[in-house]
Amino acid sequence: HLRLRSSLPPLPLILLLVFFVAAGKGDGGLRFRQESGTFKVLQVADMHYADGRSTRCRDVLPAQRPGCSDLNTTAFLYRLLRAEDPDLVVFTGDNIYGADSTDAAKSMDAAIAPAIAMNLPWAAGIGNHDQEGTLSREGVMQHLVGMKNTLSRFNPEGVEIDGFGNYNLEVGGVEGTLLANKSVLNMYFLDSGDYSTVPSIPGYGWIKASQEAWFRKTSSSLQKNYTSQQPSQKEPAPALAYFHIPLPEFSSFTASNFTGVKQEGISSPSINSGFFTTMVEAGDVKAAFIGHDHINDFCGKLTGIQLCYAGGFGYHAYGKAGWSRRARVVSVQLEKTESGEWQGVKSIKTWKRLDDQHLTTIDSEVLWNRGSNGRGGKDHDRS
Ligand SMILES: *[C@@H]1O[C@H](CO)[C@@H](O)[C@H](O)[C@H]1NC(C)=O
Ligand SMILES: *[C@@H]1O[C@H](CO)[C@@H](O)[C@H](O)[C@H]1NC(C)=O
Ligand SMILES: *[C@@H]1O[C@H](CO)[C@@H](O)[C@H](O)[C@H]1NC(C)=O
Ligand SMILES: *[C@@H]1O[C@H](CO)[C@@H](O)[C@H](O)[C@H]1NC(C)=O
Predict the structure, then answer these.
(1) pLDDT number for residue 372
(2) How wide is the angle at C-alpha 7 spanned by C-alphas 6 and 9, nearest 5°?
(3) CA–centroid distance, residue 127 to ligand 1 (Å)
(4) Based on the structure, what is the number of domains in the chain?
(5) Ligand 3 midpoint to CA 155 (Å)
(6) Would you say the CB of residue 222 lies under 6 angstroms from ligand 3?
(7) Nearest residue by C-alpha to atom 13 in ligand 1
């Protein structure tokens, strides 16, 4: 709709524009909000998107079957984005269901389209079904990193690493405050693989030693920068981790010590590659978020780390008829000084939204509180 001008604006103006765009963006431009001191992430797990209108819904009530397709997944995403107005949308894999998709790139474009249409920054990882269509795992990730508004990255540069889509994002403090140029919240995205390629080990893939080494190094550098570079902070910034396949430690809970439901087994790899222990040792990750098992949606805390399912989002994905498709929201809140200046992170909260008439909010809980020595949780909410 823009008419081409006969001449370009003067060079100084272009340079000024480039400077402002670059300065305003920072690392992907993620930062906490000025008014509320919050940063909100919407996690969308397992859309299983295929061909749109012609792709039928699975596991819905008989009365819901007619006219139900991938487009219902799209409609749910639009409703949620409008209702929650997140600062970042995270797609944790099985975004598309390759086996039923005619064109993997087209399916991915359609699946992510609502986030792009609403001009929201988003990040994605891959699951175990994204590559079953016309693109390989590498090809799917390559496509994702080329899409509009994405903060997804292929892999860290200059590092030998397993998988595709291992990267981290930094969230800056509130503009104009002392922490404006520091990453007060960190996010790690890892490729948890698809299936084991080792003949003697059956089942799903796992996070490999090379990925753990990258995570350890990145976490250590972020923590060092936060606590030593001016203005230096007393404690490392908290972090969130996102990937697809549950770690074996997701099996550590029963209904007595999680919030949400467990309606199927935990489909983790059959061996433990140690990433949970690595996160505990690193110390900054307060919660890890996954998908993969669509009808589990709980959070449980083990050794100071919350392990959370999002619950299945997509209508073409298996689910449970009569049990609403859902998504998980995480809202991170900054501390405020008595003089009213925003500081570092004070608390991390979560809830889920159901695709029912009212987009019902359920299972709100505090995942972490600063100063609670890892004992944060419902019983220790000091707010
Ligand atoms: C799917 O979308 C159609 C069209 O908007 C709607 O009539 C139907 O109720 C939706 N089905 C479900 C299960 O949400
Ligand atoms: C943050 O960086 C911007 C741009 O480089 C600079 O103008 C500002 O003074 C910095 N703020 C702080 C608190 O260091
Ligand atoms: C830590 O700070 C150094 C120096 O500014 C920078 O080069 C490095 O990338 C930072 N580490 C991370 C993980 O961002
Ligand atoms: C949860 O409770 C069960 C017993 O109901 C116990 O065996 C298990 O160790 C608990 N898990 C955690 C992480 O506290």
Answers:
(1) 63
(2) 140
(3) 26
(4) 1
(5) 17
(6) yes
(7) 64
Query: Which residue's CA lies nearest to atom 13 of ligand 4?
Result: 302
- What does the alpha-carbon distance between residue 347 and residue 175 come to, in Å, rounded to a whole number? 19
The answer to the question of residue 243 being in a domain is: yes
User: Domain containing 242 — which CATH number?
Assistant: 3.60.21.10
pTM to 2 decimal places: 0.92
The pLDDT of residue 371: 84
User: What residue numbers bound the domain in which 337 lies?
Assistant: 31-345
Q: Which residues, given as ranges, of the chain have pLDDT below 50?
A: 1-9, 14-27, 374-383
Kindly state whether residue 71 falls inside one of the protein's structural domains.
yes
Asked if residue 356 belongs to a domain, the reply is no
